[in-house]
Queue: 2 jobs
Job 1
Amino acid sequence: MRGFSSSLDVSDMFILTFNANSVIFRPHQHPQKSLVLNHVSDVVAARFSHDGRFAASIDAKGTLIISEPIPDRIIQVYQYDNVFPNAKYLDWSADKKKVCIVGEGKTKFGKVISIDTGITAGDIGSISATVNSCSFRPERPYKLVMGGDEL
């Protein structure tokens, strides 16, 4: 059985989903009122940080946007272009300083990005097929577990 990323994530204040080029934040208190963050191309993955304060989303062209949803608007904190164009999934480190992005590639199947600088903290290689999901170990030393098409 193969795992695929979910288009739904939940924090204490919001439900996060994505469709086409939009990331949609629905407040728990007022689900009929939505906050929308638009990307240039179709969004392929979006997740809240572990504490729910920030959200990361990446589109098909590899644009990574870090945002902070508050009750009446979305604050775009960082935007990095062409981070990983064939992304399928992303996950946050527990300290909210790094995001792991995985997907399709030829020699690199993912990378870990430092949020405050946009610099690559490490590449994921030595894999022969697409990586569909990843997860950080929640405490130091940080480690990654990945799931993919490799047999």
Job 2
Amino acid sequence: MIAQPSQTDTSTGPAAPPPWVPSQPIVAPSALSDAELMALRDESAKSFAQSLDIVDPPVVALVRWTSQFDWGPTIAQCLQDAGFNIVGAANGISAPDGIGAAQSSAFNLAYYTCFAEYSMNPTFNQTYTADQWGLQYDYDVEWLVPCLAAFGVTVSQPPTRQTFIAQGLQAGFPTWSPGSEADLAYQAKSWDENAAMIQTCPFDPPNEYMWGG
């Protein structure tokens, strides 16, 4: 089962609006095979080990796939179980106390292990189709922008739907992103305030609409 955003109230911010349902549903792309998913996971884990300067990373079995909605809390819990003070929300983690130099090697190995055990499903890192860019636009305009407004975040005016789709296809990333603007607006906020905003107003549409499942 694909993990979905909770879109529920939090203790440190406004309640989420009612769950979003697309006004223009799309047909999801064909699913990747298990072999394709595992091959992409292995490539991602290898790159991650290199980024952490782990020369000979251990072989780590996949426990379960995560999504952009639960990767952060899952990795944070895994690292907490390994003895590190880590918090997580959506697809991000933070170390409130920092990681000391004496702990860096042990932390990197634990981080790699958790990353491999709870790999984000590579499905969600695929390049968007035109239909998916359109779905992202509809979600942003119809649901995300009003949700962020409840947290005091005002974003720039969107381009037209057609322009957004064309720019996304060309650039490979959104040239107008309410989520990125919200991140900048909340830079000076506490982790709890950031987490409440991100958990209440997920930056991505539910995977059931974007990817099927």
